[in-house]
Amino acid sequence: MTQFIRELHGVPAPAAALVGDAALQAFVGRSIYAESKDLIHPDNPFRRPLLNDAFTGWDCEEYTLDDLCSNGSLVANRVLLSIYEQDFVFLPRASFDAGKRSAFAEFYDRNARVTGEILSCRLEKLLFSCVSKAVHVSGDWDVKSFEAYFEDFKQRFRAEKLSHLMDSIASMRDPVGGARMFLVQMAGDFLVESSAMTRNVVGNYGPVQSELFKVVIDECGYGVFKTKHSTLFENVLQSQGLDPIPHTYWQLYLPTSMYLNNYYNCICRDHASVFRYFGAILQVETAFRLTCEIMARMMKNVFGPSAHIEYFREHTHIDDHHSRMVMDKIVVPIVESHGEFALREIVRGFEESLVVGDQFTAGIQHQIDWIDRVDRDDAIRRLPACAQPRPMRAGSGELCGTKMADAEIGYQVMSGRLDFVFGVDKHLTLAAGDCITIPPNVLYGVKAVEDCEYRVYPAEEKEA
Asked: Which of 7, 178, 249, 363 has CB 3.0 to 4.6 Å from 172, enough for a Cys bridge?
C-alpha cells in the first residue's frame, strides 16, 4: 500500500482519477464530514463539512493560481487539511459526550488515514503545482550570494498588500465585523501554531535539528501554557467574543486561508522538502515581525481599548531573533554541509512562501471588499443579465453549506425569506421580491429563515 501511494502520480490519468474518486467518496462519506444545517459546531474540532451542493468534482489535474478561489479549491483544501490534521491531537474542551466520542473515533480511524494518503497525492498535485511553477530558481548560488539576497529582501519588504488589506478593514462601514472575519481566517493556522513544523524536529540530522527545536520551544511558550503562542491567539479571539476552539468557524474559512495552512503542512510532512521548508520558515520569521506590527495597528484602530494584541507583540519581539537564528544556525550550516542542491531548495521555499502569502492576503481582500459592498452598494440588488432561472424551494432552517461563487450568480426570493452569510458577522436577509447578484470568488452560504421559494440565476445549484 505504501509503495502504491508513492507511485500514484505515475499512474495513467484515467486510472488515477478513478482511484482518486473512489478515495474521495470513501473519505467524505463519514458522518463528521457530511453537510450540516448548522453554520458552526462549537467544541467539536472533528466535525467538518467538506462538500457543498455546488461541487461536482475536479475537472483538471492542476490548478493555476487564479483557480485557488474556486469552489473546487475550497473543497480540495477542506479535504486536504482534514487529512493533514489527522496527525495532530485534538480534544474537546468539555468532557466527551456520545456524539463527540463517535466523532473522535471517526476522525482518527485508521482506514480513513489510509484513504486520506491516497487522496492527498491527487490533491497536492492539484493545489501546489502552480506554486512550484510560479517560482524559477536560476543562476549559481552560494552562501555569500544568498546572504546578499536575504539582506536585500529585509531592506525592501514592506508588506504593502497586507497594509492595504488592514486599511480596507479599518475603513469599512462595519470595521469590527471585518476585523473579526480576518481573525477567523488566521485561526485555522494560529490555533495549532508550530504543529506542522514539529514534523521536522524528529530524526537525526545534527546540530541544525536542535536549533530548529529551539524555535519550536519558543512557539510552545517554553512549556508554559499561558505563554504558548496558540494560547495567546486564543486570548485574541476571546477578547472579541470569538470562540477559541479550533475550527468552530470551519465553514467560514476561505480556500486561500486554508491553502496557506496546507502548504506548510505539505512541505513539512514531505521530508524530501525539508530544505524548502528551511527557506520558507526563514521568510516567515523575517516577515512576521513587520506583519504583526501592521495587524496590531489595525486592531488598536478598530477595536480600541478592547484590542488584545499580546500575540502580535510577542511575535514582533521574538521573530527578529528567530530570523537571525534560522539564518545563522540553520540555513548557513545546512548550505555549508550540503551545498548548492540544498541552497537552491532553500531559495525555492523562500520564494514559494511569498507566493502563498500573497494568495492568502488577496483572498481575504476580495471577501472583505465584497462584505463592505453589501453594506454600501444598492447595485448588488439586481439579477444577472441573460440568465435562465431555476426555481428552488427550501424548508425553514435548511442551510446550503458554504461555497465559493465560481461565476456571477443571482438569487431572487419569490416567497418567504432567505438569509445569506458572507462572514462571521455579515448576514443579509432577503424577503419576497428581493434579489441579489453575487460576484465570482466570494464565499457565501444560504439558509431559509422560513419556508421559501426562490430562483437561482444561472441554474447551477441543487435544491437546498
From this structure: 178
What contacts 340, CB < 8 A, 6 or more positions away? 140, 141, 142
Q: How far is CA 125 from CA 109, 133, 257, 266, 327, in A?
A: 25, 12, 18, 11, 30
Taking the C-alpha atoms of residue 420 and residue 430, their distance in angstroms, rounded to an integer, is 8
Q: Is 429 helix (H, G, I), strand (E, B) or coil?
A: strand
CB atoms within 10 A of CB 411: 22
Distance CA 101, CA 92 (A): 10
Residues 222, 314, 334, 88, CA torsion sign: positive
3-state helix, strand, coil in the chain (%, to 5): 60, 10, 30
CA distance 420 to 426: 8
pLDDT of residue 256: 98
Instruction: Give the chain's length.
Output: 464
Q: How many CA atoms lie less than 13 Å away from 453 in the CB half-sphere? A: 3
Band (251; pLDDT cuts 50, 70, 90): very high
Mean pLDDT along residues 196-204: 97
List, as one string, the DSSP characters of 355-374.
HHHHHHHHHHHHHHHHHHHH
Q: Is the pLDDT of residue 2 over 70?
A: no
Q: Which class for 106: exposed (0-12), middle (13-18), buried (19 or more C-beta within 10 A)?
A: middle
Is the pLDDT at 14 greater than 90? The verdict is: no
Report d(CA 182, CA 247) in Å as an integer: 14
CA distance 447 to 402: 10
Using CA of residue 97, residue 102, residue 105, residue 107, what is the dihedral sign? negative
Give the bridge partners for 191, in sequence order: none
Can you tell me the mean pLDDT for 153-171?
97
Domains and CATH numbers, the chain: 2-130 (no CATH), 138-376 (1.20.910.10), 379-457 (2.60.120.10)
> Using CA atoms, how far apart are residues 247 and 46, in angstroms rounded to an integer?
8
Residue-wise pLDDT tens digits, 89-120? 999 998 899 999 999 999 999 999 999 999 99
How many whole angstroms from its chain centre is CA 368?
Answer: 16
pLDDT at residue 406 is higher than 50: yes
What value does the CA radius of gyration of the chain take, rounded to a whole number of Å?
23
- Per the omega criterion (within 30 degrees of 0), is the bond before 391 cis? no
